[in-house]
């Protein structure tokens, strides 16, 4: 992320962004409640973020993201949402754990890795060898694995379905 921000700074920006989307007006007490921190901690961080030109805040007033703060907050929120979706929808991690893990990972993943993650998720959706059946099989495997015979049977079934799809496409062309 830009500005060499700490993960805590990014969390504050993301929280302000999310609260702004939800409530339209963001107050210090809303940030403190959402992040489960005390008011003085929020005030201190807001001063730091203000000095970096990322938030606008006067004592006893609303908190607003600057143009640059909004840009960074949107990026952090996008990383979080994408990683959360990967964990919950692809890996089938429970929502609470997926959210907590996404929060930790969003700060550490590079833009290049994030781009590859997006490409992988898109690939899973469009590749004829993947899709819902593939994800269900992966989920079954994670639940308790499968025997060599079960995997062979799944592969055989896949090949039959895939051959039919190919034949249809050739017939259409």
Would you kindly provide a written description of the structure presented here, covering whatever features stand out?
With 173 residues, the chain is mainly alpha-helical. The protein has helices spanning 7-23, 28-35, 39-51, 67-90, 95-105, 111-126, 131-144, 148-172, and strands at 55-57, 63-65. α1 packs across α4, α2 crosses α3 and α4 packs across α5 (95-105). The mean pLDDT is 85.
How does the SSE layout of this entry go?
Layout: H1 7-23, H2 28-35, H3 39-51, E1 55-57, E2 63-65, H4 67-90, H5 95-105, H6 111-126, H7 131-144, H8 148-172
Antiparallel strand pairs: 1-2
Helix pairs in contact: 1-2, 1-4, 2-3, 4-5, 4-6
Outline of the structure:
The chain has 8 helices and 2 strands.
Q: What fold name stands as the CATH topology of the largest domain?
A: Arc Repressor Mutant, subunit A
Q: How many strand elements? A: 2
The number of domains is 3
Helix content: over 70%
Main sheet characteristics: 2 strands, antiparallel
What's the CATH H-level homologous superfamily of the largest domain? Winged helix-like DNA-binding domain superfamily/Winged helix DNA-binding domain
Provide the gyration radius in Å: 22 Å
Number of helices: 8
Strand order of the largest sheet: 1-2
List its salient traits.
173 residues, mainly alpha, Arc Repressor Mutant, subunit A, Diphtheria Toxin Repressor, domain 2, 3 domains, two-stranded antiparallel sheet, 8 helices, elongated
